[in-house]
Amino acid sequence: MYSTEPEDKKQFRQEFDRFYGRFAKLYDWTVKIFPVWRNWISQAIPHIVGPKVLEVSFGTGYLLTQYANNFETCGIDYNWELTCIAKRNLEANHVQAAIQQADIEHLPYRAETFNTVVNTMAFSGCPNGRRAMAEIYRVLQGNGRFVLIDINYPENRNWVGMKLARFWASTGDIIRDMGQLFSQAKFHYVEKEVGGFGTVHLYVATKIG
Ligand SMILES: C[S@@+](CC[C@H](N)C(=O)[O-])C[C@H]1O[C@@H](n2cnc3c(N)ncnc32)[C@H](O)[C@@H]1O
Question: Where would I find the beta strands (DSSP E) of 21-168?
């Protein structure tokens, strides 16, 4: 039932990046106009602990505008167009965050820097889940948190949710056994379904070891 990762990870990353580049403005307006997406990703906010927070794959920066001023916040995103839009959105909302373009698989920070890493609706677009998880683990301090919101199958396998999850998978999203990934990376985690007929999952994972 779970997706397999693409063999050509570089090509997969570039295709997704081209897509985000082409539709960056539309993506910005979609997040601004439709409350449902904002409601889903905002479920991460109560789980963020500081002082040092990193948001990975911030997109147009909506979530950053909601919490970044409360912490020492950094952010990275792979896509150049989205990073430029996010910078403008932060400025317009008088929000301070040190954001830059970078790859989740090569985070430009020292080990054990952050208390929390946040990632919303993006992990299923990472072609190498183990590598991305290992990088997030590396930059977290001991007992630090990885707060993740992403698509997965609903636990009760309801018809609408299953159709929705399969639709996401058909668009290229990689739906994974997240429990296995968290355990391999030495995270303890709790999981909750927060929307989308059980397809939008919140994971709060704590770094152990
Ligand atoms: C569906 S969007 C989610 C954006 C935002 N987090 C939100 O919830 O609206 C996926 C994001 O992942 C980013 N992304 C894709 N590949 C990435 C990579 N290798 N490293 C960092 N970010 C990446 C994209 O540029 C895009 O901003």
Answer: 52-56, 72-77, 98-101, 114-120, 140-151
> In this predicted model, what pLDDT tens digit does every residue of 32-60 receive, in sequence order?
998 999 999 999 999 999 999 999 999 99
Is 115 within 8 Å of 139 (Cβ atoms)? no
Which protein residue has the closest C-alpha to ligand 1 atom 4? 59
Domain boundaries, the chain: 9-207
* pLDDT value, residue 1: 86
Instruction: Assess whether pLDDT exceeds 70 at residue 209.
Output: no
Using an 8 Å Cβ cutoff, are 47 and 145 in contact?
Answer: yes
Mutate to test the pocket of ligand 1, among 77, 126, 200 (most ligand atoms within 8 A of CB): 77
23 φ, ψ to 5°? -110, 25
Q: What is the pLDDT of residues 113-169, one digit of tens each?
A: 999 999 999 999 999 999 999 999 999 999 999 999 999 999 999 999 999 999 999
The CA 175 to ligand 1 mean position distance, Å, reads 15
Query: What does CATH list as the number for 9-207?
Result: 3.40.50.150
Residue recorded with tokens 């020492």: 72
From the list 126, 170, 131, the residue with the least C-alpha distance to 150 is 126
pTM over 0.85: yes
Q: What six digits make up the tokens of 85? A: 């839009």
Kindly report the backbone phi and psi dihedral angles of residue 179, in degrees, each rounded to the nearest multiple of 5, phi listed first. Answer: -60, -45
Distance 17 CA to ligand 1 centre (A): 9
